[in-house]
Write a structure and sequence with these properties.
By secondary structure, the protein is mainly alpha-helical. The chain folds into two domains: 139 residues, 3-Layer(aba) Sandwich (Rossmann fold); 29 residues, no CATH class. Helix content is 47%, strand content 9%. The chain has seven helices and three strands. The protein has a three-stranded parallel β-sheet, with helices on both faces. Helix 5 links the parallel strand 2 and strand 3. Helix 2 runs parallel beside helix 4. The radius of gyration is 19 Å and the shape is globular.
Length: 171
């Protein structure tokens, strides 16, 4: 999905929740990562971000979660004013710590309320939480072994990677 969006649009930012590498302060980490990706290609630092950087250099505490969200929304709004859409891809929400999922869902809701296009992937077991968010469309994707094999072979071939599969009765 990220490759597909990146081929057509300039401003695609993403985050992968990894169950095996949990992060304390997940929302701050999430928003810092997204903000860093968004700021990277810009040729200037927006004043709101510059102000926070100056405060941090003076020994004042860094931004809190809601301030990171505000900065992100401000930067997205600035980018969108140039006519360029911004896409946020959050991959593997189900791998986020159970206690953090509701807070991440609230952040998704805030982003969506600010007309930010958010694409979230997750296994079905947290779909009831996602369904509770306004203006969410859920698309169930059921991949069969043949589909995965076909995609992997095509992707590997396009990237010059040799891919082999062993036959199995569990397809």
């Amino acid at each position: 999905m990220i490759d597909y969006l990146s081929e057509s649009f300039e401003n695609v930012v993403y985050y992968y929740f990894n169950y095996y590498h949990p992060v304390s302060g997940i929302l701050e980490h999430l928003m810092r990562c997204l903000l860093q990706q968004l700021l990277g290609p810009l040729n200037h630092i927006p004043p709101i971000v510059e102000d926070f950087c100056q405060h941090a250099q003076c020994g004042q505490p860094g931004p809190r979660t809601h301030e990171y969200i505000e900065m992100f929304i401000h930067v997205v709004t600035s980018i969108r004013s140039t006519g360029s859409p911004v896409f946020v891809v959050l991959d593997g929400l189900d791998e986020c710590s159970g206690s953090d999922v509701p807070r991440v869902a609230q952040t998704i809701e805030i982003l969506a309320e600010n007309a930010i296009k958010v694409f979230v992937t997750s296994r079905p077991h947290i779909s009831s939480l996602i369904k509770s968010l306004p203006s969410v469309s859920i698309l169930a994707i059921d991949a069969r072994a043949d589909d995965i094999r076909h995609y992997s072979l095509h992707y590997g071939e396009a990237k010059g990677i040799k891919t082999t599969f062993h036959s199995s009765t569990n397809t």
